[in-house]
Amino acid sequence: MKGLLLTLLLLNLAYFGYTRLAGNAGEPAPATDSGAPVPRLALVGEAGPTPARCATVGPFATQLTAQRAATWLSAGHHGSRLHSADGPGPSSYWVAVTTKTLQDATKIGLRLRAAGVSDLVIMPPEVGATDAIVSLGIYSERDRAEHRVVDLRRYAVAPAIIEQPHTVTTWWLDVQTAAGEPPPDVNLLAKAGGEVGLLRMAQCPVAPAPAAASAPPTPTRGAAPAPATGAGPVAPPPLPAPSTPASVPAPAAAPGTSGSTAPATLPPPPSASLPKATAAKP
To answer: Which residue has the higher pLDDT, 240 or 6?
Structure first.
């Protein structure tokens, strides 16, 4: 009877262990938490955070007026960055007569001065050239230059109008505005900087991408390789062997003496006699 009970107990324990092992094998492994935050999906109609904007204001005619405007912005807790830009400026119009030689230019200049036209300059040819120029004025407006040409035709000259384009440097302020903050007022900026011209606002220029590093040049066969940076000191090239010094001619003998003279013997230095020390008597 005891053996039967012990057998039933062992069978129950074996069945219990089998069911536990079979149940654990069929369950899926629990998901592990990676710790990375899951981004929230934005619903339709929801707007994300507005990034900061950058507006550039200009052009300022001088750097001084731009710096004054930047000071006014900093007083209102607005940071700015000052930069310059080169652009096309107003052209000037040069009225001149070109001649083949300096002598022809001098004749025209003398004739015009004799007729009362004194505002002219005779320009000699440049180095290696022969053409000379009679300059008759430079004007900021083309209409005035054309009126000058018409006025000079009565003196039997036919000057030409040469347009001279110019490049001017202007100054701009890049102003960073926070999200939801209105951009700066260009009229107030012009007044604060003392700018006479009209200012405008545009987007900040995009910084150019950094240039790709160029590959090191391939060394030419037979050429010495360039020393590597940080590889330690470079041994200097070997110095050339010293040349044999030229023989210095002996000084000429004084007249009345033979060619070979013995060197003069210097007298020995006089020996200084030191006084004998005497013991002091008590």
So the answer is: 6
Query: pLDDT by residue (tens digit) across 134-144?
Result: 999 999 999 99
| CA atoms of 115 and 226, how far apart (whole Å) | 71
* pTM summary value: 0.45
Residue 94 vs residue 37, higher pLDDT: 94
Q: Domain for residue 109, yes or no?
A: yes
CA distance linking residue 157 with residue 136, whole number of Å = 11
Q: For residue range 44-82, list pLDDT tens digits in order.
A: 445 555 566 888 999 998 999 999 999 998 887 788 899
The mean pLDDT value of the chain amounts to 74
- Domain assignment present for 245: no
Mean pLDDT, rounded, for 230-258: 45
Whether 143 maps to a domain, the answer reads yes
Confidence of residue 215 (pLDDT cuts 50, 70, 90): low
Q: Domain span at residue 149?
A: 92-165
The pair of structure tokens assigned to 199 is 């200012």
- CATH number of 65's domain: 3.30.70
